[in-house]
Amino acid sequence: MPTLDNIVATKAILAKYNFHFQKKFGQNFLIDRSVLSGIVEAGNVGPEDFVVEIGPGIGTMTQYLAESAGQVLAVEIDDKLIPVLQETLGSYENASVLHQDVLTVDFAEIAEVKNQGRPLKFVANLPYYITTPILMQLLQNQVPFTSITVMVQKEVAERMQAQPGSKDYGALSVAVQYYTDPQLDFIVGKGSFIPQPNVDSAVITLRPKEEPLHPQVKPEHMFTVVRAVFNQRRKTLLNALANGGVLGGNKAAITEAILAAGFEPSVRGEGLDLEGFARLTDALYH
Ligand code: SAM
What's the 77 CA to ligand 1 centre distance in angstroms? Predict the structure, then answer.
């Protein structure tokens, strides 16, 4: 049975290990049963799943996941939490801990070696300071996954779902919507965590699209174009791509590709929809 899902048990284990929260690691631990079971439910976690949890903290959600999943692998960066996790997960034979920075983990290899090449399921209350790099890494590296259910800042969940023309529309919106169908599960208030974050949060689930719009477009090319456009979103498409080093900054070649994709070099790239980005990437890198 999960044992940490309340403020009293959480404070007791923190005191036992003389643990101090580290802001630089985005540490806000869940202390709310209904949120914990809501996340496991949103992730539709079952015995057939190999679940990766990014940032287990003291193992509160890991215990919930281990109750439902086949296997759980929890990736934690903070040395101070490793002995805590040894205790809190000690009685779960299907849970293990990988002490590593998540941004350096080769998840394709983990799927291969630990899950017979089958896709992984990601469930996490993410460290908010690296939400975007973590999601971009999973999508760009084409890590095989059945779903990604994550707690993020509410504003970030909105950005993931934003449409062209809105101020929230950016590289994350395009990357998420090009490769997945995002679905907002529920909103979580500040009081569900210790310490309380400054912002409201949201749980969102990303399920892979059956087939991307243009399957021949390589993710690394797509991401190069999307990043170049949104790094300089007030510039014209031509200048943003050239300054972003696309095609070595060769303006003539970029102009030709923009025209071939059916756009004017003077438009702003931030207005392009998913199909537009795919067509443009295809024209630039075919
Ligand atoms: N899952 C726990 C919970 O819900 O109570 C803790 C979530 S807390 C928001 C984020 C966790 O991610 C912390 O345990 C933090 O130490 C860990 N973390 C931060 N940066 C990390 C990184 N680069 N790689 C792996 N874990 C990281």
Answer: 7
Residue 200 has pLDDT above 80, yes or no: yes
Q: Which atom of ligand 1 is nearest to the CA of 134?
A: 23
- Residues contacting 153, CB < 8 A, separation 6+: 128, 131, 197, 199, 200, 201, 202
Residue 210 has pLDDT above 90, yes or no: no
Report the separation in Å between the CA atom of 27 and the middle of ligand 1, taken as the mean of its atom positions: 6
Domains of the chain in start order, with CATH, are: 7-208 (3.40.50.150), 219-285 (1.10.8.100)
Express each pLDDT in 100-127 by its tens digit. Answer: 999 999 999 999 999 999 999 999 999 9
pTM for the full predicted model = 0.95
Of 11, 29, 123, best ligand 1 pocket probe by most atoms within 8 Å of the beta carbon: 29
